[in-house]
Specification:
It is built from 33 helices and 24 strands. It is an alpha/beta fold. α11 (about 330-340) packs antiparallel against α12 (about 345-355) and α13 packs across α14. The chain is globular and about 95 Å long. The structure holds ligand 26W.
Length: about 800
C-alpha cells in the first residue's frame, strides 16, 4: 500500500530516464555521447536524490511542528557503505530504475558499483550505528545521527608481498548524498582558562575564556526508511578555521603562511577517522575530535529544544541522547556546562536533567579498549570540563560514602579519577554515572558488564540501571540488497516482502523445509552466490576456486581475541593431514576454500603478522598441485561494507571463534545465518542467542566457556602448560620455513608457547579441529545440510535491528514513533 506515496516515486520509466539525462546534461554538464558508468551513476543518484529530498524536507517539517521527543544517536562512527541501492529500494523504485538504466544502456549492478563506500567507521560498532539509522527511519522514530565528516574514512587495504599496506581513503570527490549547511555552524572553544566570580546574589559563576575557536559546519545526509515516507537526518560536522578562509589581520601583517597554517590546523580535527577499534591510544587529536563533535551536537540539540520555549525540566522529555560507547562521554560534562554556566541552572536540577537525558551503550569489556584520558591533557584542552568532572566525581563519591560507609576501599575503585601517574579520567565510569541506563549488546556481554567492569556500580545504583539490548542487523541491506534472489524466494512463499519490515514472519518458511521446489531454489541461490564470490576471487585476487567446495569464511577486523590465528593454524593442520593422506583417502575428502578478510589497525604488529601468515600459507597451498582443489586459502583484500554484501551470502560456514567472553556480540554472525550459512563458533556474544533461536543442531559450537577462561589463564602461568600436540606440529612446520621466512611469525607463536596464550588458542585447538571435521562430514550430506540452513534462516527473526530499536525506544529512550501523515 505504501507504494502509492507519490512524492517518493517516479511514475514511469520514461520520467526516470528523462531526469537522469537531465542531470547528466545540465547538473554535470556532460554530453550524453561520452556518458560512462560514472556519469550514469551520478545522474541516477541525483535523480533519486531529488525524490528523497522532498520526503526528507517533509519529515523534518512534520517533526518540527509536532515537536515530539527525539532520539539523538551520538556515534563517532557510521559505517554506511553505499547509499544508492538503499535509496532506490526505500524510495520503492527498483524496477523502474533497473528498466530505465537498461534502456539507457547500463546494467544496474555496474552503475551501483561506481559509488564509493562511505566508510566512516572501523567495524562492528560503526556498522551497528548504520543499521540503527535504517531501523529508526523505517519504524518512523524521530531520530538524528550525529558524527564527524571525516575527509578520510577507514584506510584502504592493499596487500603487497603478503603484507598489509594502508592507503588513504579520500572519498569526498563526488558525494551526492551530503548537503553542506553553511548557515548551520557552531563555534567550538579549546584551551583557555576559567575565571570564577560571584554575581550580585552571591552565586558562583564560571566563565571559560581566552580559548581558541574552531568552527563546526554541518553537513546533512538523508536517511530514508523502508516502506515509509519518513526520511531522517544524519548530521556530520566538519571543522573550519573560525575566521573563514584565512586570518586577515595576520595576512595583512605579512604573515600569509601563518594564517594558512591556522586554517589547516583547524581542518585537521575532522580530517581522519582513527583506525583503532580496540585499543585506547589517548591521542590529543582524538580528544579534540570527541569534544568538537560533542559540543557541536549538543549546541544543535539545545538550540532545537529552546525553539519550543519549554521549561528546562522538560528537556529529558524532549531529548534522548544515546552514547555509542564512551567516545561521546564528554557530552555529559558539556551538557552540565551549558545548563550551569550558560543557562544558570542549579547543580541538582542540571544533574537530574543530564542523567535522565543520557543512555550509554558499552561494546567491550576488554580493559585495553576502555578509554582513559590523562588529567593534564584534559586540563589543558578543556579546563572547565575537568572542573565539572571533578565536581561530578565529588558528588558521586559523597553518595557512595553515605551508601557504603564501611567500604572505604570502594571509593578508590569507583572514582572517575584513576590515581595513576599521570592521573586519568575513566570515561566509562563517567558515562555510567551520567546516564540513567547502561546496556550491553548481547546477553552474555551484558552479564559480564554487570559482574566485571561495573560490578561496584550495580551495587551502588541497583540492578535496574543495567540492561541488555541484543544487537541486530537491518534485513533491508543484509538480506534484500545483498541477496535479492533469496529475498524474492521468501517473498514468493510469504506473499510479499512484508517480512523485511517484520522479520519474525520468516518463521513461516519453516513450513517449506521439505518442499522440493523450495529446497531446489534455495540451494541454487546459495550456489549462485558462491559462484559470484568465486568469480570475484578470480577477478580480484587471481585465485581460482571451485564453487562446489565448502566455502568457509572469516571476515572481520583482525584481532588476537577474534582468533584468526586459530583459523589459519587449523588450515595448516588440514594441509598437513592432506599431505600425508593416501590417494585413496584423499578422494573422500571434502574440498574446502578458507576465505579471510579484514583490516589490521596500522600499529597492531601481531594482527599484521596474522595477515602475512594467511597470505604466505595461501601462496604455498594454492600452488601445491598435489592438493589441487582440496584446499584453497584466499585473503580478500580491503574488506568493507560493499564487499560484505557479496561475501556474506556466499558462505557455507562462517567463523565466529573469539575467546569466550571477549566478543561483545558480533553482528556478522547474524548476517551469515540469515543468508543461509551455518556457523562455527564459540559460546560467546550473540552466538549464544543464535544457538537459542536456531537450535543446537543447526550451529557448530566448540571450545572452552567464558566462566572457565580465568582459571585456564591462571593455569598457563602457575600450572604445567601443555601445548596441544597438533598445534605443536603446526608451529614446527611454520618454524621449518614451509611458509617462507619464519622470522615474522615468531611473535605469533611465542605469544602462545612462551607468553601465557592469553587468548587460549592451544586450549581450544583440539575442540576446533574436531568440530571442523564434524562440519566436513555434515556437509557431505547435502540434504541434511540444506535442512539445517533453511531451518536456521526461518528462525532468525529475532536479530532484526528493528526489534533492537523498539527495545531501546521502550526501555531506554521512552520515545514513540511519529508516523507520516496519510497522503491526501
Ligand atoms: C578507543 C578505541 C576503541 C574504538 C572502538 C575501542 C573500542 C571500539 C569499539 C567499541 C569496538 C567495536 O566495534 N566493538 C564491537 O561492537 C559491536 C557492536 O556492538 C559488537 O558486535 C562487537 O562484538 C564489538 O567488538
Amino acid at each position: 500500500a505504501w507504494r502509492k506515496f507519490s512524492a517518493k516515486e517516479f511514475k514511469t520509466t520514461e520520467e526516470f530516464e528523462a531526469e537522469v539525462v537531465r542531470h547528466i546534461e545540465t547538473t554535470l554538464a556532460r554530453s550524453l555521447f561520452n556518458c560512462d558508468e560514472a556519469a550514469a551513476y551520478a545522474g541516477t543518484a541525483l535523480a533519486l536524490r531529488d525524490r528523497l529530498i522532498i520526503e526528507w524536507n517533509r519529515t523534518q517539517q512534520q517533526q518540527t511542528f509536532a515537536d515530539p521527543k527525539r532520539v539523538y544517536y551520538l556515534s563517532l562512527e557510521f559505517l554506511m557503505g553505499r547509499a544508492l541501492d538503499n535509496a532506490i529500494l526505500n524510495v520503492g523504485m527498483k524496477d523502474v530504475a533497473e528498466k530505465g538504466l537498461a534502456e539507457l544502456g547500463f546494467r544496474m549492478e555496474d552503475v551501483i558499483s561506481q559509488e564509493r563506500d562511505a566508510a566512516l567507521g572501523n567495524g562492528g560498532l560503526g556498522r551497528l550505528a548504520a543499521c540503527f539509522l535504517d531501523s529508526l527511519a523505517t519504524l518512523n522514530y524521530p531520530a538524528w545521527g550525529y558524527a564527524l565528516r571525516y575527509r578520510y574514512g577507514i584506510f584502504r587495504q592493499e596487500i603487497v608481498d603478503g603484507y598489509q599496506v594502508e592507503v588513504p581513503d579520500y572519498w569526498l570527490d563526488f558525494n551526492p548524498w551530503e548537503f553542506p549547511r553553511h548557515d548551520v555552524t557552531v563555534d567550538i572553544q579549546f584551551y583557555g582558562s576559567v575565571r570564577k566570580y560571584r554575581d550580585d546574589s552571591g552565586k558562583q559563576i564560571s566563565v571559560w575564556e581566552n580559548g581558541e575557536i574552531v568552527k563546526a559546519v554541518a553537513y546533512d545526509a538523508p536517511i530514508p526508511g523502508y516502506g515509509t515516507r519518513t526520511t531522517n537526518n544524519l548530521r556530520l560536522w566538519s571543522s573550519k578555521a573560525s575566521h573563514g578562509e584565512f586570518d586577515f589581520t595576520k595576512f595583512n601583517a605579512g604573515e600569509y603562511e601563518a594564517s594558512v597554517a591556522d586554517q589547516q590546523r583547524a581542518e585537521t580535527i575532522s580530517a581522519v577517522l582513527y583506525p583503532n577499534d580496540s585499543l585506547d591510544r589517548g591521542k590529543e587529536l582524538r580528544l579534540k575530535q570527541q569534544y568538537f563533535w560533542c559540543a557541536a551536537s549538543l549546541f544543535d540539540i539545545v538550540r532545537r529544544f529552546k525553539k519550543s520555549k519549554k521549561a528546562w525540566k522538560e528537556f529529558p522529555n524532549q531529548v534522548a541522547i544515546q552514547l555509542n560507547d564512551t567516545h561521546p562521554t564528554l557530552a555529559i560534562p558539556e551538557l552540565m556546562r551549558i545548563l550551569l554556566d550558560l543557562e544558570g541552572l542549579e547543580w541538582d536540577e542540571a544533574w537530574q536533567i543530564t542523567q535522565m537525558t543520557f543512555g550509554y551503550t558499552n561494546h567491550t569489556v576488554m580493559p585495553e579498549a576502555l578509554e582513559k584520558w590523562s588529567v593534564p591533557l584534559v586540563q589543558h584542552l578543556l579546563p572547565r570540563h575537568l572542573q565539572l568532572i571533578y565536581d561530578i566525581n565529588f558528588q558521586f563519591l559523597q553518595f557512595v560514602e553515605r551508601s557504603f560507609p564501611k567500604e572505604r576501599e570502594m571509593l578508590g575503585r569507583v572514582s572517575i579519577i584513576e590515581e595513576s601517574e599521570p592521573k586519568r579520567v575513566r570515561m566509562a565510569y563517567l558515562a555510567v554515572i551520567g546516564s540513567h541506563k547502561v546496556n550491553g549488546v548481547a546477553e552474555l556481554h551484558s552479564d559480564l558488564v554487570r559482574t566485571t567492569i561495573f560490578k561496584d556500580f550495580v551495587r551502588i545504583y541497583g540492578p535496574d540501571k543495567f540492561t541488555n539490548v541484543t544487537n541486530g542487523i537491518t534485513p533491508r541491506r543484509w538480506l534484500h540488497q545483498a541477496n535479492p534472489r533469496l529475498s524474492a524466494l521468501i517473498a514468493s512463499k510469504l506473499g510479499g516482502h512484508e517480512f523485511l519490515r517484520d522479520l519474525n514472519l520468516l518463521h513461516k518458511i519453516e513450513a517449506y523445509v521439505d518442499d522440493k521446489e523450495f529446497r531446489k531454489e534455495f540451494q541454487a541461490i546459495k550456489f549462485a552466490n558462491k559462484k559470484r564470490l568465486a568469480d570475484y576471487t578470480k577477478e580480484v585476487q587471481g585465485i581460482t576456486v571451485d564453487p562446489h567446495s565448502l566455502f568457509d569464511i572469516q571476515v572481520k577486523r583482525i584481532h588476537e581475541y577474534k582468533r584468526q590465528q586459530l583459523n589459519i593454524f587449523g588450515v595448516i593442520h588440514r594441509y598437513l593431514e592432506l599431505k600425508e593422506m593416501s590417494p585413496e583417502d584423499r578422494k573422500k575428502v571434502q574440498p574446502r576454500v578458507s576465505f579471510f578478510g579484514g583490516k589490521a589497525a596500522p600499529g597492531y604488529w601481531m594482527a599484521k603478522m596474522v595477515i602475512h601468515l594467511i597470505n604466505q600459507v595461501g601462496k604455498v597451498v594454492n600452488n601445491d598441485k598435489d592438493i589441487g582443489d582440496l584446499l584453497k586459502v584466499v585473503f580478500l583484500e580491503d574488506y568493507n561494507v560493499s564487499k560484505a554484501e557479496i561475501i556474506t551470502p556466499a558462505s557455507d560456514i562462517s567463523e565466529h571463534i573469539s575467546t569466550a567472553g571477549t566478543e561483545a556480540s558480533g553482528t556478522s554472525n547474524m548476517k551469515f545465518v540469515l543468508n543461509g550459512g551455518l556457523i562455527i563458533g564459540t559460546c560467546d556474544g550473540a552466538n549464544i542467542e543464535i544457538t537459542r533461536e536456531v537450535g543446537e543442531d543447526n550451529i557448530f559450537l566448540f571450545g572452552n566457556l567464558s566462566e572457565d577462561v580465568d582459571d585456564l589463564r591462571h593455569h598457563h602461568f602457575y600450572g604445567d602448560f601443555q601445548l596441544d600436540p597438533s598445534l605443536k606440529r603446526v608451529f614446527d612446520t611454520i618454524r621449518s620455513g614451509t611458509f617462507g621466512d619464519s622470522g615474522p611469525f615468531t611473535g605469533l607463536v611465542d605469544s602462545i608457547v612462551d607468553h601465557g596464550d592469553y587468548y587460549l588458542v592451544s586450549d581450544d585447538f583440539k575442540s576446533y579441529i574436531d568440530t571442523q571435521k564434524l562440519i566436513d562430514e555434515a556437509y557431505k550430506d547435502q540434504d541434511a545440510w540444506l535442512t539445517k540452513t533453511i531451518t536456521a534462516v526461518s528462525r532468525m527473526g529475532f536479530f532484526s535491528s528493528d526489534r533492537c530499536i523498539d527495545e531501546y525506544a521502550e526501555m531506554i529512550w521512552n520515545v514513540e514513533p511519529l508516523p507520516p501523515p496519510k497522503e491526501n
